[in-house]
Each structure stands twice: as C-alpha cells, then as structure tokens.
Automatic annotation (TrEMBL):
Organism (species): Nitratireductor pacificus pht-3B
Domain ABC transmembrane type-1 as annotated: residue spans: 97-311
Cross-referenced SUPFAM superfamilies: MetI-like
TM ranges: 12-31, 99-121, 133-161, 184-203, 246-268, 288-310
Swiss-Prot/TrEMBL GO biological process terms: transmembrane transport
Record membrane topology: Multi-pass membrane protein
Family classification: Belongs to the binding-protein-dependent transport system permease family.
Keywords noted in UniProt: Cell membrane, Membrane, Transmembrane, Transmembrane helix, Transport
Keyword Repeat belongs to the record: no
Protein name: Putative peptide transport system permease protein
Cellular component terms per the entry's GO annotation: plasma membrane
Amino acid sequence: MMVHFLLRRAAFGLLTLWLISLAVFILFYVATPGDPALMFAGEYATADQVALVRARLGLDQPLHVQYLTYLGGLLRFDFGMSFVNQEEVLSAILRRLPATASLAFGSILIWLLVAIPAGVFSARRAGTAADRLVTTAALAGMSFPTFVVGTLLFYVLFFMLTNAGYPIFPSGGYKPISRDALEWLRHMILPWMTLAVVGTGTYTRIARGSLLETLNQDYVRSARAKGISEGCVMYHHALPPSLTPVVTLIGLDLGGLLGGTIITERIWGINGVGSLAVQAVENGDLPMIMGTVLFAAVFIVVANLCVDIVQALRDPRVRLG
C-alpha cells in the first residue's frame, strides 16, 4: 500500500513539473510578444547576433521540436546559458543555493520551536488572559509585512546598537558556514528573525486552532474519562494528530523559501536564489528567469512530496485516501 501511494505521489509530482515546464516554455517562447531571439540576444544585438541566438536556441525549428529540445535539456539538467554573464544557469543557481538554504531552514526551525509551544500553551488556556495575549501577539506578527520587520530589525539591532558602541550584528551579507561558523551565525540571526516573526504568528494560530479542535474529539474526552493524566492526554493523544496541518504547511513554506526569499535577501544583502531572480528580471536575462522559476517549482514539488511521505507514515488514513 505504501509503495503504491509513493508511486502515485511521485507520478503526480512529475506531471506537475511537466505542466510547469510547458507553461514556462509557452510563456517565454510563444506568448511573449516580439521575436524571442531578439529578447534573448538583447535590445542592442546586431542582426548576425540575433540569427546566431535563433540557431543556437533552435527557434528556426517547428514549435514542437523546440519544446522537445527544451525538455530534453531540462532532463539533462541543462537550464541554458545566461546571456548576461555567459554562465550556466544551473551553476549560478547552485552557487547561490547555500545562502537561501541557510535562510530557509534556519527561519523555519526558529518559528517551529516558538510557534508549537506557544500554540499548545494558548490552547490549554483557551479563553483566559494568557490565551488572548498569545493570540494577539500572533496576529500582530502575521500583520507585519516582511520588509517592515526587516527594516525595524536593521534600524534597532544594527544601526542603534552599532552607534551605541555595541556592534553585535553585521549590516548584512552572507558568510559560508564552511569558512567561519560563528560569522555565519552572526550574519544569519537577523534575517532568520525577519522571516520568523511572520511565520511564528501564522504557525501559532494554526497550531492553536488545530489543537483546540482535536481536544474536542470524542477519543480525547474518553481518555480524560479514563483518568489519564492531562499531560499524557495533551502530548500523547491530542498533539500528534493536531500537527497534521502544521506539517502540511511546512512543505509549502519550505518549498517557497528554498525557491527564493526575495524580500529578505534584498534587505540583508544576501546573494541567494531570490536575489538572483531579481537581478535576472532587472537585466532581462530570460534564461536565468526561466531557470529560477523552474528551480523554485522543483523545490516546491519535492517539498510537498516529502510532506506527503511524512504524513503517510504518521497517519495510515492518508495512504488510503
């Protein structure tokens, strides 16, 4: 049963990626007004350069041949060549990936470590002043845009502390963990907090709502009626099934973050995948734009596949569904 479930989910993921590749091809090769070769070559390219790009990309071939060539390149992990710096698109993305991965995994870890205990604390005290305080704080965190949180953190924890003679945090940038783990941590704390403020608020409300719903289930009432301790009821019977929507949301958020945390990377000067995508748009580098879009799609599909596997292992009903 588990093998069949995994095969179905993998097939669905491959179908999704194929549809995305088709949509990207149509968007940039077919639906875009004007000559695609001229767009790839640049506004100031000569006629010979445009002809060379057209032949190089196979734009002089029938449309179905162009797509099959494009799809074949993707299957060989060939995302094309940047026309701005003549670098392979995949190499450029992989070079920027460690920064984005550090930002994504660190921020998710922080908001899970804060949000789940906060949600449990709030649900156990539903209707009390403590519950209202937690839910208000969560709502406030959700209400702040990321760029506002990042700007406030930059001003308070970098600018003001540095002017006061306490340069604890750097102004931005990224230091690889392989070179200096302590400097990597110093450079990542504020970007992590920028994302964690919004994420913590969202996950706290989801964890609280799901746990409250689970606590009203009949099997939880039966466990309490049997005299089982409240701690055992909460953490053994109620909490594990209530985390199902949280785990599902992690897959969506992780895929999106790995695809590129554009705003946070720009605020803190982190040269990640998100910054690469913005630069590609600014430079009109269509191969790089297409590559980052497809790369983000792959991460989202893979992250959701991993979530489906985890959910299936946690709950057999998922496999049957």
